[in-house]
Amino acid sequence: MPLAEAGGAILAHSVKVPDGRLRKGLVLTEAHLAALAEAGLDEVIAARLDPGDMDENAAAAHLAAALVPDPGAARLRLTDPFTGRVNLIAETAGVAVLDTAALHAVNRVHPMITIATVPPFQQMRAGGMVATIKVISYAVPGAEVARAAAAGANALRVAPPVHASAGLVITQIEGGPTSDKGARAIADRLAALGMDLAETVTVPHRAAPLAEALPRLRGDIALILTGSATSDIDDVAPSAVRRSGGNVERFGMPVDPGNLLFLGRLGARPVIGLPGCARSPALNGADWVLSRVACGIEVTGADIAAMGVGGLLKEIPTRPQPRAGRAAPDKG
Predict the structure, then answer these.
(1) Which of 98, 102, 174, 260 shows the smallest number of beta carbons within 10 Å?
(2) Is 123 buried (19+), middle (13-18) or exposed (0-12) by CB count in 10 A?
(3) What is the CA radius of gyration of the chain?
(4) Before 322, cis peptide (omega within 30)?
(5) Helices 236-243 and 207-216 meet at what angle, rounded to 10?
(6) Distance CA 18, CA 29 (A)
(7) CATH code where residue 217 lies
(8) pTM
(9) Which DSSP helix (H) or strand (E) runs through 147?
(10) CATH value at residue 64
């Protein structure tokens, strides 16, 4: 459009002027038009809003306010809108809780109105980005923004830990190696959730001493790390949970690494039987279960079964592809 008609329009592309550069997306003022004229231009590529349009920043802010109407309660911080973007930042460690159906509905309203998030139940640290809202074009119809806001109302939050500590029982095979590597890795996992490792107890790898140790273990959550891989639901650790008066709700999960996890309860206290891979700081299926349990989110057998899609976390040298022709069983 001619410079004479460009006042109040949105500059579509950055333009170099004698005193610097006018960035794309700014609303052209008389001073901007004078600078463009001084640069030898008599026209400019710009956008002008249609009636009922909402500019990118107002649209992003409006959608963010609908998705997170109470940031304090949601444990989220909303950044100021800039270039059509608002980021949603975790204010605490915890787990991202998303209404996925609502968020899909938001992204179906208009291709210029978008929200991208971390996966559901992703473990978050304070300061981590949970989601980003981006309005792609300089403006979008206000009616579409209203539709998106209604579709995504109250769709995101961070669930903080509700448990302050966990206790760890390690079983020791007679004559087997001793190491505190596993305890250190688990303590680090708990610390990432703002929790303490209340105590670590080592017992022989037999059901009776383990059953005796569990009720006395300090901590809101009981964790078990066995000296030998748990082969089935009647192995030492699951048997010890039942022997101590608890129950095992699920043994095994379709996540690799992490297959050999089991989940149970001893009275009101959750019990997690950790797979051997929990001795490593690398992500494994136990992290997915521990973070949810720590944040008070119920984990059922059906929930664990659903973790299989996306549950192939990594390929490691001891599990080569194809996973065939190995003499030893794959336990871990």
Answers:
(1) 174
(2) buried
(3) 27
(4) yes
(5) 50
(6) 16
(7) 3.40.980.10
(8) 0.90
(9) helix 142-151
(10) 3.90.1170.30
Residue 21, domain extent: 8-47
Q: Please answer whether residues 294 and 200 qualify as being in contact, where contact means their C-beta atoms are separated by less than 8 angstroms.
A: no
Hey, what are 298's tokens? 């119920």
Alpha carbons 290 and 52: distance in angstroms, whole number: 48
| Total number of domains in the chain | 3
CB of 116 closer than 8 Å to CB of 131: yes
Q: Are residues 33 and 134 in the same domain?
A: no
Mean pLDDT by 10 residues, the chain (332 residues): 96 95 95 96 96 97 98 98 97 98 98 98 98 97 98 98 98 80 95 98 97 98 96 97 98 97 98 96 97 98 96 69 51 58
The C-alpha atoms of residue 60 and residue 56 are separated, in whole angstroms, by 6
Residue written as token pair 């809108």: 81
Other residues' Cβ atoms within 10 Å of the Cβ of residue 307: 17
Nearest to 134 by CA among 115, 153, 120, 108: 115
Say how many C-beta atoms besides its own lie within 10 A of residue 136's C-beta: 13
